[in-house]
């Protein structure tokens, strides 16, 4: 008799956002007259910027003619996109990252989830608590953790690093030494940011203990302050201890189009083995690349018009973030994030648990958010709202919350 991968049996319940979607669907079926506003999953609502739509349309036309048709993309992604990424996202910020160190993919979620494959299952992972569930779940699936422990509300063998208001949601170095450290800033779910000095300390720590940092920079486009690093490679020495993930979902609205990239510097070596070569091998074997038309749209993000149109879209969402921050403060909530990030992290009122608040908000305000405890035990008593709604819905949601 064949056997399943038993590591999958350790995973708790459903993926957080699937559980929420199911609850909301049930509520809507029972209350068909109620207009539900979704500020739960971080999915964008604004249409693709015109310059991106043009790029997509032009690329589709190319596909319609034998002499301009494109089949399989090159393993690492098209050079026209990788060179724009290297120039705009790195070299212009003083980071010496070349196009050959960039791997284009269909999104940061897949890369964040898949990257662990190139590391030994004996490695110990450290994650922030609360945390984007993908980092933990994919390591559970790979067998890099023990069983789920209901008491600690976490998996055996995982180093959880508490992120609380007391430490500005930036973790302290763990007592136990990790091999792989997942960091995400601007942070999902807390909306917190890390300063360059703090990030440099993490780079120095990783070098000292011989760990690799897996840095998720999916929300870097929301950074409004010059003090906050856009990339871990702004820190000295990061090229020899860090891998970085980027998404086009949150800056350019590609959640439904799918595009992202991962940077694996050539000088990143583990006992003499090049991680760049391992990831290239994995990419070539398991992946046939993001579609040509999507990579063309990705390159349009870096044109002058593309940058301007995308900037407007980010401002649009950040106006929502300010509206949520102000509205919640006025309604008496304790709030965090929402300044350099599209997420607002609020303390649930009284002693209400995160899921109790979820139910209350859905029932009484018909607003969907994400329970903080779904991101880890230190998320208990917190709740996440996203700034990715429309202005109209965000305003309406806040009016309803204020009335609650
Ligand atoms: C979130 O809501 O945390 C994000 O949408 C997750 C993701 O980007 O996969």
UniProtKB/TrEMBL annotation:
Gene3D superfamilies: Aspartate Aminotransferase, domain 1 (3.90.1150.10), Type I PLP-dependent aspartate aminotransferase-like (Major domain) (3.40.640.10)
Pfam families: Aminotran_1_2 (PF00155)
Catalytic class of the enzyme: transferase
InterPro entries: Aminotransferase_I/II_large, DapL/ALD1, PyrdxlP-dep_Trfase, PyrdxlP-dep_Trfase_major, PyrdxlP-dep_Trfase_small
Binding site for pyridoxal 5'-phosphate: 72, 108-109, 132, 188, 219, 247-249, 258, 288
Cofactors (names): pyridoxal 5'-phosphate
Residue span(s) of domain Aminotransferase class I/classII large: 35-401
Molecular-function GO term, any one: L,L-diaminopimelate aminotransferase activity
Binding site for substrate: 15, 42, 109, 132, 188, 288, 384
Statement: the UniProt record of this protein carries the keyword Nucleus: no
Key words of the record: Aminotransferase, Pyridoxal phosphate, Transferase
Source domain of life: Bacteria
EC number(s) on file: 2.6.1.83
A GO BP annotation: lysine biosynthetic process via diaminopimelate, diaminopimelate-aminotransferase pathway
N6-(pyridoxal phosphate)lysine modifications at: 250
Reaction equation(s) it catalyzes: (2S,6S)-2,6-diaminopimelate + 2-oxoglutarate = (S)-2,3,4,5-tetrahydrodipicolinate + L-glutamate + H2O + H(+)
UniProt pathway: Amino-acid biosynthesis; L-lysine biosynthesis via DAP pathway; LL-2,6-diaminopimelate from (S)-tetrahydrodipicolinate (aminotransferase route): step 1/1
Known role: Involved in the synthesis of meso-diaminopimelate (m-DAP or DL-DAP), required for both lysine and peptidoglycan biosynthesis. Catalyzes the direct conversion of tetrahydrodipicolinate to LL-diaminopimelate.
Subunit annotation: Homodimer.
Similarity comment text for this entry: Belongs to the class-I pyridoxal-phosphate-dependent aminotransferase family. LL-diaminopimelate aminotransferase subfamily.
The protein's name: LL-diaminopimelate aminotransferase
Lineage: Bacteria, Bacillati, Bacillota, Clostridia, Lachnospirales
